[in-house]
Amino acid sequence: MKAKIATLFTLIVLVVVNFAIWTYINNPLQLPSWSSTMMGVTYNGTRRDFDPAKRNYPTPEQVQEDLTLLADKVHAIRTYTSLEGMEAVPEAAAKNNINLAMGAWVNLFENTIVVPDDISEEEREKILDKNRSIEAQNQKIEERNRRDIESLIKLSNDYPKTIVRTMVGNEALLRARNNLAGPIAKRIREEYRGQGLSEREINDKIDLAVTQAVAEKANELISYIKEVKKRTWKPVSTSETWDIWAKNPALVDAVDYIGVHILPYWEGIPVDLPEGAKGEAAVDYVFKRYYELQQLYPNKPIVITETGWPSDGPPQKSATASLINEAKFLRAFLNRATAENVIYYIIEAFDQPWKIKLEGTAGAYWGLFNVDRQPKFPMEGEVVGNPTWRNFATGAAVLSFILMAAFLFTRKRLKLAGKFLFGIMANLAASVLFWSASIAASQYQTGFSVVFWSILLMMQAMAILVLLTESLELAEVLWHRKGRRTFSPLAPHADFKYPKVSIHLPIHNEPPEMVRKTLNALAKVDYPNYEVLVMDNNTKDPAVWQPVQADCDRLGDKFRFFHLDNWPGFKAGAINYALENTAEDAEIIAVIDSDYILSPDWLKSMVPYFDQENVGFVQSPQDYRDAHQSTFKDMCYWEYAGFFNIGMVQRNEYNAIIQHGTMTMVRKSAFDKVGAWGEWCICEDSELGLRLYEAGYDSVYCKESFGRGLMPDTFSGYMTQRFRWVYGAMQIIKKHWRHFLPNKKSSLTSAQRYYFVAGWLPWFSDALALLFTGASLILTTMLVLNPLHSELPINAFLLPTIGLFVFKVGRGLWLYKARVACSLLQALGAALAGLSLTHTVARGTLQGLFTSGKPFMRTPKYEAQGPLIAGLLVIWQEIMLLSLLIAGIVAMRMEPQFDNTSGRLWIAVLAVQAVPYLATFLTILISVAPNYMPGSKVAAEELDVDS
Fold this sequence. Notes:
Elements lengths: L1 H24 L3 E2 L7 E5 L17 H11 L3 E5 L10 H7 L3 E6 L16 H38 L4 E8 L1 H20 L7 H33 L4 E6 H5 L2 H6 L3 E4 L20 H15 L5 E6 L15 H17 L3 E4 L9 H4 L22 E2 L5 H20 L7 H27 L4 H32 L21 E8 L4 H12 L6 E8 L4 H14 L3 E6 L5 H11 L5 E6 L5 E2 L3 H5 L8 E5 L11 H22 L11 E4 H7 L9 H11 L3 E4 L5 E2 L6 H22 L13 H36 L9 H25 L4 H13 L1 H13 L17 H7 L1 H19 L6 H28 L19
Parallel strand pairs: 2-3, 3-4, 4-5, 5-6, 6-7, 7-8, 8-9, 11-12, 11-14, 12-13, 16-18
Antiparallel strand pairs: 1-10, 14-17, 15-19, 16-17
């Protein structure tokens, strides 16, 4: 009862702390208030369901509703067109006593292509066809321009008291410049290629040519402006960005006032600067550009026809879109504009979700009101960055409480410190998930974005599951009271009846001198009642298998040799044959690999556990005797040691170990109940162990080593071995998945289900990481090729990716320090070896899930180390991905558009993704290096048995 009360207290404390952190992060911000009426806002009355293709423009009733809402908040509004539902605006504005700046949307003509003289008739005809297409398109543009201008003129004359100024075109020259810049740059670079000009000189020529081309296009716009001036009595201008006005004095001469857009967000100017930082904040930047234009054109009135800040969207250099920043910018700008008597129109009245397709995410979020006509923040008093944060904080608290309760109330032997560690991770995981969900909920979603967000949240949920399972393992290893299932070697009592053990030794094409050592060690086993069956399956060369047969004959009647030719089932088929030929009085089946040299006391020390009738199999750890041979093998040795000293020990506490095909013993009668070794599975050992659990048997795991074998000699062999383990695990999942579901039909305990699934989760995580890496490379390519129109993932996904990697590395080193008797350098080597197999694990997982029937892959023994080039060819996929990721990092670093927090986080994510592939490259280099270490032999060498 005390333990449950302590656990409940822990849960409550952590949930309260979590909610307090949410409260602190979402603490209301005090900003200068704005309590007056705004001078003007831009207006487009489209609703949430607006689609330009459907032409479902706002109705007169909707326009009237909007202007009634705005009537006591603004003196004036500005439209971008006089069509598409905006024809109703003057009437509604008049009724609500709102002044109106009426606009006409104008597109400029596309230039036709000049036909060169020195081309073929076929090429000439292609250009002429293109020009005819351009002329037809220009005709449509002219017709659309004409309708809008005629509507503008009519409305201006019909509502002279309401419409106070007009605007012909909105960023028409800016769009023209963007369209012209690419072809002009290409032409200039081709023209001056090989002439010795510097990059700066070429760029200067490009800028000059673009400026001249824009000035020529300005003449089209000026002709429209002159027409409207001639046919109306109101001041006429156009709306362009400040730099277009600065470079086009002829345009200034043609208008009655300068209608300027100054949008610091798009130029990467931050809303505010850290204390002591150099540069300009956004509002200062707006007025700087305003007064620069005033100095350039002192006799021309200036109206800021667009300025504002989006509440959401990707960062632009140092500019961050957020609700807080929108409130900061607008309150500061409005107060200063009033003080300095500047005429302005804030962009915009209402959010426009349809603009996402045109301008990216930020295009939707410039409104003072959201698309449902609700104010996004108050103009007076405190501002909260996420007004609905309490809902998500509550969700995070509930989820974290459920997670903690589900795990911690069932861990009676877990100390308080371990419960706190897992509880902290559970709260962190739940908060990250609900933080991401809060961002999704605050955005305007489309069908595509809903699918996209669903995929991201599922991937994040998978990462969180991995985090929680690994956190729980860390807590249990470090702070678990000694359990009831801690097994040690037994000393049989004097009257112990030794059951007969049949030791099965399957071999295939193994070096006979290696097998001889194994057989000699088996002959020296200190156990009175055993036999050894050696099954050689499908070795074709008699010079390989006949010496083994001779050794068996030499060692006496206990040893029986079988040569199986064209035998099916690989290793499982061989040991199933051994089962059929086992002595009838044998009660226990033991299996070892052909390279293992046994300790003489293995059977005596472990067989007595079968006195417990519920014990189905007894497992001893895999161990190795050749770690001293090279740095590579030393790394592999400690990587293996981590599993057998950490994972297997912990799983044993819950009767949920993985059975291995060497150093294992199985009750013979259990085969009658569950069947023979599974020849369909390339991990027949693990699959049998699972069937034994499903049949209700228990297991015993003793971490003391009783035999040592040989590790793979090459990195290729190391990869092949791990691929087989992973692929076999996927086969097991596909066959047994129903047993892992929480249903009454499964005889597995909840702990067994948990530990099997938790053990496989990191492999699924590696597979997802491979898919994520591919997606990251595609996204990075898009970002680099089109930085202005591509967006980075939100920080809510980037930060956990980096954090999970750091946690996993730190957790691994912590566990090694606690459970594995190795140095820090050896632990780091083990980590490097484990990371080097990440891509192999990912391939094994994906192939195992979507294919079947992969043949058994034997790990070669005494394999000669090939040249470096051969090793590099083995890891060509890893090298390719590493190269692409490094190229992506370099390209992102060179792009100024991403010189911000999100850009740096994305580079960090790419670096994290590159680490496993770099580990593979380093490990292959280490594996081929001539760095043998004869002076540091492990104790296992003492077990070597001479013939």
